[in-house]
Structures are given as C-alpha cells and as structure tokens.
C-alpha cells in the first residue's frame, strides 16, 4: 500500500518490487490479486497516467509505447489508454519541435542570396542537410513518426 500511495504502479512493477523484498512469491501474488480486486491497483489507470505523463514531457507514440511495454503493460491495455487520452500526435510533435528548436528556420538557406561562389553554396547546402538530419534524429529519438514532423523540416 505504501508503494501505491506515492504513485500508480503496474502489476509487473509491484511484482518485481515486492518480489525483491519478500521471499514468498505466492503471498506476493495473493496480495497483488487482492489489490486488483479492490481496484487499488489498476494497470489501465496506470497506463493512462503514464501516457499523460510522457505526453507532458514531449514524447511521441513510439517512445511511449516502448516505455509502457518495459513496465509490463500489454498491447491491449496500451491501446485502451490511447483511446481514453486520445493524444494529437501532430500537435504534440510541433510543440516538442518548437520547444527544442524554436521558430528558427533551418540554417544555410541557399536560395536567399545567390552566391556565385560554388564552394560556399555547397557548404551552405551541407550545413542545411546536417541540421535537418540532427532535427530529424531528435524527433525520432523522442518517439515521433516521420509523418508527424516531416512537414516541420521542409524549407
């Protein structure tokens, strides 16, 4: 009960934590079953809470799904949590992108000033491509799919 008083836990998390503290796995399983029956522990409630928390931190669907699977939640529970919360991934991707990179356009715009120097144009193109790749990697690391953020990287 002390663990559940602090925050929601998945059944898997509680099983691991209590299994380390107590040697009798049968007793631990009975206690977890009792908590579930009394609705003091709910994987569904935990999934919704975790989803909202990860969304607030600016994570995308891929990263959130992976985090939820690591915490012992099954796909059905994860899908139900998404149905309840109904996140807008495109808007969340735009917010995460803006928080990290602001409203600044990609640097190295070659079309702004025609430069007769081929080497400088090439260097500007390479700088723009590197920055675009960096921003794309950041968004993918956050768990967003390319369709969620691709329009943000367009010139």
From TrEMBL:
Q: Where, subcellularly, is it found? A: Cytoplasm
GO cellular component terms? cytoplasm
Q: Which InterPro entries match?
A: RecX_HTH_2nd, Regulatory_RecX, WH-like_DNA-bd_sf
Key words of the record: Cytoplasm
GO terms for biological process?
regulation of DNA repair
Query: Coiled-coil annotation: which residues?
Result: none
Residues covered by the RecX second three-helical domain: 42-81
Q: Which family does it belong to?
A: Belongs to the RecX family.
Q: What is this protein called?
A: Regulatory protein RecX
Identify the species of origin. Kineobactrum sediminis
């Amino acid at each position: 009960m002390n663990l559940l008083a602090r925050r929601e836990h998945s059944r898997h998390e509680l099983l691991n934590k209590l299994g380390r503290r107590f040697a009798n796995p049968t007793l631990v399983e009975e206690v977890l079953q009792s908590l579930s029956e009394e609705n003091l522990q709910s994987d569904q409630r935990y999934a919704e809470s975790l989803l909202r928390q990860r969304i607030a931190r600016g994570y995308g669907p891929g990263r959130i799904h992976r985090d939820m699977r690591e915490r012992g939640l099954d796909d059905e529970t994860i899908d139900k949590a998404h149905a309840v919360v109904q996140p807008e991934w495109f808007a969340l991707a735009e917010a995460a992108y803006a928080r990290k990179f602001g409203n600044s356009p990609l640097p190295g715009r070659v079309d702004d000033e025609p430069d007769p120097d081929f080497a400088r144009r090439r260097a500007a193109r390479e700088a723009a491509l590197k920055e675009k790749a960096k921003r794309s990697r950041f968004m993918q690391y956050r768990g967003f799919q390319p369709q969620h953020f691709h329009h943000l990287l367009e010139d």
